[in-house]
UniProtKB/TrEMBL annotation:
Superkingdom: Bacteria
Source organism phylogeny: Bacteria, Bacillati, Bacillota, Negativicutes, Veillonellales
Domain Alcohol dehydrogenase iron-type/glycerol dehydrogenase GldA intervals: 9-178
Record's protein name: Iron-containing alcohol dehydrogenase
Annotated PROSITE patterns: ADH_IRON_2
Keyword Oxidoreductase listed: yes
UniProt keyword terms in alphabetical order: Oxidoreductase
UniProt xrefs under InterPro entries: ADH_Fe/GldA, ADH_Fe_C, ADH_Fe_CS, BDH-like
Gene3D superfamilies xref list: 3.40.50.1970, Dehydroquinate synthase-like - alpha domain
UniProt-listed Enzyme Commission number(s): 1.1.1.1
């Protein structure tokens, strides 16, 4: 197992009917900005309930944060904060709102263009650059990204998506009430299941380093999502099923399962380029890329693929190669069982898309991806060609 540091200060508030606790979680003298997305939080009455829970605090609102949040939207929010003197931000929504809020709270205290903070985001924004971002919390309405309990974000700018990390942008708290996810559109639930699943495989399907605890945590998340994936889509108000979905999504990307083990992330980074170029949902791009990537990288991932086959899919017969092939096929079948196609052609994309995405990867410096840095543009081309 690799050396590692593990740090996660986010206070999780899990369960139904807990919005009233915002009054104890947000500082009493705070001037609060609520950030949210396309308006469903307003139409459902959730924003009004949150404002009521915040009591006598001065509350401002900034809506319209889009899926795959843009730098331009973040810049407008930063200008709003500087104009109104906000000192605490409450993100209400899914991963896109939380991701945007992470850049917003850094930009709000940075004496310079927000784009400079975004561009400094890998490996992480230097503490001396933004030493005092505004504190923020979250009220989650979409289980998918894990952004509610980590220090990372992905921001869209131009034709690219840019990761941004800072050790200072863990949410102070995140409120996870499964009932707030009951009214999600079916497509978003499907995407959330896939995102949770692939977050886990990115940290699990690499190569063995005897990280036994991490492997068992990962396998537990994967098995849970296989068990509940279709049901959480078809029975959205089954509280116990949705509660497991919500918590699995958080655990899949709060840093726990990735400590001390190699991590891949090529599926995500290739998928980000598909989203930026063709506006495909993030979950859809992961369903397209992952099975093809596992096929192309099978020999490098063989030991973990065989373990995945046995422990997650209960495939016990055959050689390692045969087990790996069956596990990859099962993975594709799982995504398809949710009603999500795993081929580019089903979204009207052909060979021209392969050329475009490979060019974007090169333009954005994504030329040494994967746990071993060996997913070159040529390998990415092979992966995307298999995904046709």
């Amino acid at each position: 197992m690799f050396n590692f540091d593990f740090y996660n200060p986010t206070h999780i508030v899990f369960g139904k009917d807990r919005l009233s606790e915002l009054d104890t979680l947000v500082p009493k003298d705070a001037k609060v900005l609520i950030t949210y997305g396309g308006g469903s939080a307003v139409r459902s009455g959730l924003i009004d309930r949150i404002v009521a829970a915040l009591g006598n605090r001065k509350v401002e609102q900034f809506g319209g944060i889009e899926p795959n949040p843009s730098l331009e939207t973040c810049e407008r929010a930063v200008a709003f904060i500087k104009e109104h003197g906000v000192d605490f931000v409450l993100a209400v929504g899914g991963g896109s709102v939380v991701d945007a809020t992470k850049l917003i709270v850094m930009g709000a205290t940075y004496d310079g263009p927000v784009i400079e903070v975004m561009k400094a985001g890998v490996p992480e924004v230097p503490v001396e650059m933004v030493p005092n971002p505004l504190p923020f919390g979250t009220v989650m309405t979409l289980p998918a990204t894990g952004s509610e309990m980590n220090n990372g974000a992905v921001i869209t700018y131009g034709n690219g998506k840019f990761p941004v990390f800072s050790s200072l942008v863990f949410p102070k708290f995140s409120m996870l009430d499964p009932t707030l996810t009951f009214t999600l559109p079916e497509k978003q639930v499907k995407n959330g299941v896939i995102d949770t699943f692939v977050h886990t495989t990115e940290q699990y399907l690499t190569y063995p380093v005897d990280g036994r605890i991490q492997d068992r945590f990962s396998e537990g998340i994967l098995k849970t999502m296989i068990e509940i994936g279709k049901e959480t889509v078809e029975n959205p108000e089954n509280y116990d099923i949705r509660a497991n979905h919500v918590w699995a999504s958080t655990l899949a990307l709060n840093g726990l399962i990735g400590t001390g083990v190699p991590q891949d992330w090529a599926t995500h980074l290739i998928g980000h380029e598909l989203t930026a170029a063709y506006h495909l949902d993030h979950g859809i791009t992961l369903a397209i890329v992952l099975p093809a990537l596992l096929e192309v990288k099978k020999s490098d991932k063989l030991d973990k693929l065989a373990q995945y086959a046995t422990r997650v899919w209960h495939i016990t017969e055959g050689t390692k190669e045969e087990k790996a092939d069956k596990a990859i096929a099962k993975t594709r079948e799982f995504f398809e069982s949710l009603g999500v196609s795993t081929h580019l052609k089903d979204y009207g994309l052909g060979v021209e898309a392969v050329d475009k995405i490979v060019k974007q990867l090169e333009d954005h410096g994504m030329t040494r991806l994967g746990e071993k840095g060996d997913v070159t543009p040529e390998v990415a081309r092979e992966i995307l060609t298999r995904a046709l």
